[in-house]
Amino acid sequence: MTDTSASQGIPEPEGSSQIIETDYEIGQDNFETQIGPFGLDVHNPVFVVSGACIIAFVFYTLALPEHAGAAFSWMFSAVTQGFDWFFLSAANIFVLFCLLLIVLPVGSVRLGGAEATPDYTYVGWFAMLFAAGMGIGLMFYGVSEPMSHFAASIGGTAAEDGARIDWAPLGAAAGDEQAAVRLAFAATIFHWGLHPWAIYAVVALALALFSYNKGLPLTIRSAFYPILGDRVWGWPGHVIDILAVFATLFGLATSLGFGATQANAGLNELFGVPIGSTTEVILISAITGVALISVMRGLDGGVKVLSEINMGLAALLLLFVLFAGPTLAILTGFVDYLAAYLTYLPALSNPIGREDTNFMQGWTSFYWAWWISWSPFVGMFIARVSRGRTVREFIICVLLIPSLVCVLWMSVFGGVAIQQVVQDGYTAAQEAPLELKLFKMLDGLPLASITSFIGIILVIVFFVTSSDSGSLVIDTITAGGKVDAPVPQRVFWCIFEGAVAIVLLLSAGGLQSLQSMVISTGLPFTIVLLVMCVAIWKGLQAERRIL
Description:
The protein is mostly helical. The protein has helices spanning 2-7, 46-63, 65-82, 84-103, 122-133, 135-154, 177-192, 194-213, 225-228, 235-271, 277-324, 327-349, 357-384, 391-422, 428-431, 437-443, 448-478, 487-506, 511-546, and strands at 30-35, 38-43, 159-160, 163-164.
């Protein structure tokens, strides 16, 4: 099994490792052919079923836009309202599971074998992790989410027919500015801190462990071998991988939709570019074209280079906003907001008996479904670049450190925007639509044209790296775990992601259609992740016994 793995681009374990003995060979169910100069090497039936279902979905959305829009709206309400408790409970389990792995002896297990060494430096590793994991989201929500929660909290609660109709988290903070700020940042950090990164860490750890240590294909199904045995190579495994493709594709399409609307808003603010679906379609098409170039350059020549450039630009923008704004207030706020997060965490994590249903369902449930739908994509990408790390090092770096960086980002961008309202009476960012809040906040600082242009560049490059990384991951899954499948297949998925994002944006529901597809695919995949925790534990125990 290890020879086969190595021949398909997966390194053999170095040093002692508990290899799983199975007759299955990577790519044995694949269909291989040559179409002109292009090679094709895809898993049957994962590629066929995934592709056919997505094509059918695209045609349905285009042919019956009003019917599709109504269906998307119904799905969003049904899942967020009926399964909010399930999303919250599952996310809590993922956090607790990851924290346990840090302190338990199994944390000493090294991914890739006892003598494996890291493939990337910390700088390169973090850069790729952030660019793929939360780039577009941080740009879109860095100002808009703290501002939205602040406005809702200070406005207090409102009820109709005995039920709350406001969007404030928990019990709000009517008329109390300081309490409203702390509650707003606690809610924001809750959505961008430990919980989403724990979701990513579970999938990434499962993929890395069962591929690099156990010698199995780099696909989602491999993590279920301790539970399903050789049945994982049959239809149970096919269904798992197909669900992963759906979740990844629609999670990416949603992020690309948010990125397109924000880039459009920024271009309109700076250069007067018209706002509308036509411009957004052009943006998605153009950026997908740039992503194709990155796809053909490969992981090191494409995603890694763009990720490091983007991280440098993001750091410069962060430092500028920090020092151009009320620096001392932001830095003291960072500590205060972390304390507020820890204070409110039990209440925000509570899945039952909540009165703040709009916040819980419209914000938290959607976020957890969105992170879960992104987890195959981000998880596999993190696994690809995390070989050589111990489980303890992996969890600390993937869970704790990124959470702190997200808190810092939100504290700086959201903190400046709220200070502009509270201290300066500058309300442009507060009154702007979500996609424009970042640029209106920058308008209140020096060098607004330059920083806004940098913001647009960041959104676009995050857009490219997400599309490129997503294509790589979906192609790996639909190629049966091969990490060196023909490049034209990645090109196909890159184009497909852009097409799905365009179709959903043009449908009757617009961005809500994107959100609806995210939660509908995130729901079944949540079950997959919960079972994955059991499989990880079994796999780590086996590795620990041979150390």
